Write the structure tokens for this entry.
Amino acid sequence: MTGPSNPRMVEAFAHPAGAAAAQVPGGATGWSGTLLHIHIAPAASYEMEALSEGRCVAGRGIEGDRYFLGAGTYSPKPDVREVTLIEQEALDALNRNDPPLQEGGLRLLPADHRRNLTVRGVPLNHLVGRRFRVGEVVLRGGRLNFPCRYLEELLGMPVYLPLYNRSGLNCGIERGGIIRPGDAIELVD
Amino acid sequence: MTARLIMKLRVAEAVPVTPDVLHLRLVHPSRPELPAWTAGAHVDLRLPDGRVRQYSLCGDPADRGCYELAIKRETDGRGGSAWVHGNLRPDATAHVSAPRNTFPIVPEARRHILVAGGIGVTPLLAMARQLAASGADFALHLCARSAAEAPLLQAARAACGRRLTCWFSAEGRRFDPAVIGEGADGTEIYVCGPQRLMDAVRSALTARGWPEAQIHSEHFAPINDETFKPEPFEARIASTGQVLHVPAERSLLDVLRGAGFAMPSSCELGVCGSCECGYRDGLVIHRDVVLPPAKRQDRLMPCVSRARVAVTLDL
């Protein structure tokens, strides 16, 4: 396994998407969500492992995760990848084949989608350029996540098109700390 | 190009089946089912130092609960099997990729002849199980020095019954490819074992008129052409026109990665097929052992293969 190297993270609000979105007001407010699952993988392509507690380190990622270690598939490419999130609601839509993009529903388990945090009740597409709290940790939405063929190949499932535009959010960590499933998620500003 | 999930599997059983073959049963620590596979498939086993070795699955493809491997200790090998024999005991953890099949059963064939030499029985045993389950017409020829040294002999007997023929050289019975008979439409031959067995079967059958395309084999060993002298060449990227210089001491894969191309790879020995890449023109020196001849006209394995002077890649 690759040891800690020097992951090249782009600060969330320095990313062109995050920077542009931060200048534009709007987006859902008044919502309140929940952290359902935390997953990390020790290296590229390794199966994700569930955590009952994750330590978030500002500017780095979740301790033990491949992107924290600089050992991810995309680590050589500078980007916002400290923490990735996906909505349980998007996974539910895939499961009911909505919209009907293939023969039947796709069951994507929390360990399968390869995002770190599975959340409920959080409008991720509204959070680019926004700060929000997960328990004691403060995240910054840097850019929308984008599905990749690599995930399709790993899963052997045609998830590329179904995940399009609901693939989650890539975030930076503004304030580190411990997160646990069940933590409340809410907008900071 | 295929990315495969890597799992940390638990060794549920590790049983020596001959003096130098260890039979492993691997299960997932939390999931009841492992990724599905078909007969002929192999997995990558990752050693702690980062080396990767390919081993065929020899269990029953219908059993999603475990993966079975049978690994021979190769005293003059590259160290992978010695690590397995020394470390994979019950409850140990094995880092194993999801399976991949570069040696599949030809589905439309009417008859299948399997020829196994020694530990080469592993993918063919899985094939025998799958063929028996589907009621297909098949035969397994198993070559070994003796019954005591034939890995998985009992399992082969159980799977094949009267479809199994044993060839034990200690008893003076050496496999004669002539028993397979003349080339027949709809009959496919699958050979796995030492290179000399695969070469002997292939040359005997082609001499008797069997088409090359009906003879399938798989081989996990590094390329051993020590007289090969790598020369520098130019690789042109078709989509951009960019030209990359590949010096003699670097692989094409390495140069592509250095130029920012995300190329999957696994064995980097020309055996696993992970880094397959298309090309348009140029004289390619194929040094892998995985691409079938028909695909070599426009596909190459950049981990080991090179070009004379220049090549244009479909990237």
Remarks:
- The first strand of chain B starts at residue 6 and ends at 18.
